[in-house]
Amino acid sequence: MRIAGSIPLSARQPGQATTIVQVGPVAFGGPRVVLIGGPCAVEGRDQVIRAARAVREAGGSMLRGGAWKPRTSPYDFQGLGAEGLQHLVEARDATGLPFVTEVLDPRDVELVATHADMLQIGSRSVQNFPLLREAGQSGKPVMLKRGMMTTVGEWLHAAEHVLAAGGRHVVFCERGIRTFEPTLRNTLDVGSVAVLREMTHFPVIVDPSHAAGESRFVAALARAAVAAGADGLLIEMHPDPAAALSDAVQSLDPAQFAELAISCRAVARAVGRDL
Ligand code: PEP
Ligand code: MN
């Protein structure tokens, strides 16, 4: 709580309302919990359009998909790059869903910002300060994921870099941190949602997919996130998870995604919101 003085642009002042982050027709921070779905990586035109249709059919309001992928191994699929971005544009045209996509390299910010509705800064990039500055200067809303080793204070300061560079809209995304507990891929810090809602006036969403690491645990974490006050959910969903080129094990299929939407909607209503 002592850090509030060093984050003037992101700290919530006493009595200050949540800042609504508008991404096309989608409002983060309002009464409605925003459901974002789509594949980990954009693998082709057909794949991403099928995913986008499944998102829309389940009542989701935004598409995700990585065109540039930060992979642990340089020999794994690195994404389609600019071609993948074009597939996302086509999926938006086909469904009307805005999309968020990760930008890894400061040199790509201009291109990604020209096409994407929202820029994702990934966990591995949360303290890439030149990238944060470029993203801020682009004027696009930024989804800032928490690093797997980042404290809430460091994460808030990372957002402050985006804002100090001229960015006006940040959405925080909790995606699990590394702890001593090895059973799930990461440990979802649900407490950070409650803490951030107090500390910042910007919306906070949760990505239960990268926390869970396995599809069968995703919905439980998603419901916990909504119950804790998350303003949105970022869910990995693939038309054919077994064939996914990245994060196959944690990806839901369209039917599981639709089921998740139904159960999270019930939780949202129980806490006075909707989804
Ligand atoms: C992703 O969203 O696919 C991703 C790479 O997430 P993270 O940066 O949280 O690992
Ligand atoms: Mn992923």
Care to describe what's here?
Helix 1 packs parallel to helix 2 and helix 8 packs parallel to helix 9. The two termini are about 30 Å apart. The chain has one domain: Alpha-Beta Barrel (TIM Barrel). It is built from 9 helices and 10 strands. It is an alpha/beta fold and about 280 residues long. It binds phosphoenolpyruvate and manganese (II) ion (MN). The site of phosphoenolpyruvate has 10 residues, from loops.
Give a short synopsis of this structure.
The protein contains 9 helices and 10 strands. With 275 residues, the chain is of the alpha/beta class.
Largest sheet: 8 strands, parallel, barrel
CATH superfamily: Aldolase class I
- What is the name of the CATH class? Alpha Beta
**Tally of helical runs:** 9
The SSE string, one letter per element, is EEEHEHEHEHEHEHEHHEH
Distance between the termini: 31 Å
- Describe the global form: globular
- Here the CATH topology equals TIM Barrel
Helix content: 25-40%
Arithmetic mean pLDDT? 98
Summarize the topology.
Layout: E1 21-23, E2 26-28, E3 34-38, H1 45-57, E4 62-64, H2 82-95, E5 99-102, H3 109-115, E6 118-121, H4 129-138, E7 142-145, H5 152-164, E8 170-174, H6 190-199, E9 204-206, H7 208-212, H8 215-228, E10 232-236, H9 254-270
Parallel strand pairs: 3-4, 3-10, 4-5, 5-6, 6-7, 7-8, 8-9, 9-10
Antiparallel strand pairs: 1-2
Helix pairs in contact: 1-2, 1-9, 4-5, 8-9
The protein binds phosphoenolpyruvate and manganese (II) ion.
